[in-house]
Amino acid sequence: MTVQELVKKIVWLGHDAFRVEAEKRIYIDPYQIESGPKADVILITHDHFDHCSPEDVAKIQQADSVIVTEKDSAKKLKGDVRVVRPGESVTVDGIRVEAVPAYNTDKQFHPKANGWLGFIVEIDGVRLYHAGDTDFIPEMHDFKTDIALLPVSGTYVMTADEAVQAALAMKPALAIPMHYGAIVGGQTDAERFKEALSGKVEVVIL
Fold this sequence. Notes:
It is a single chain. Strands 7-8-9-10-11-12-13 form a seven-stranded mixed β-sheet. A six-stranded mixed β-sheet has the order 1-2-3-4-5-6. It has one domain: 4-Layer Sandwich (Metallo-beta-lactamase, Chain A), CATH 3.60.15. It has five helices and 13 strands. It is α/β, with parallel strands linked by helices. The radius of gyration is 15 Å and the shape is globular. Helix 4 runs parallel beside helix 5. It is 18% helix and 28% strand. The chain has helices at 3-7, 54-60, 71-74, 160-170, 187-196, and strands spanning 10-12, 18-21, 25-28, 41-43, 66-69, 80-83, 89-92, 95-101, 117-123, 126-130, 147-151, 174-178, 202-203. The mean pLDDT is 93.
């Protein structure tokens, strides 16, 4: 699969929530979603209410759905829940899920010590990175990703300008802004992110 083919299978559900319609259907941080097609894999980055929402998980969970998350969220969820820490990986139905760090560097909403997550998911050879709630952190220089889903709102996460620096550090083929339009941030943050990366990294606003 090419990057452009996978992008067409990514559905933004608002805030940090996405559905990926690949061979296996993957949801990431479902929050305030409509009942939709059932999930094969559900990835939860951390236990804040707008990321770990058991009522939203229930809308898409089926008996054999696999949830991959960190220890705090795992306590709130039921079913086949697999706990990972940053640096660990798990393979679910042939899909490799790498857990990577996600934390704040200059604020206290997401402490590094909590072990909360971003994910790099390998789908038919394409590496999709969901940053979770994070600032631009040093580890990003080592992430190998083809498509990067990056927060741009500031306040709890990195700003659009900091997200630009993160994208330039990782050099994905394509970046998609997230974490705006629901709790904090707006369309102008996504537009500023796209404009700043013009000619450097392709940006698609979903």
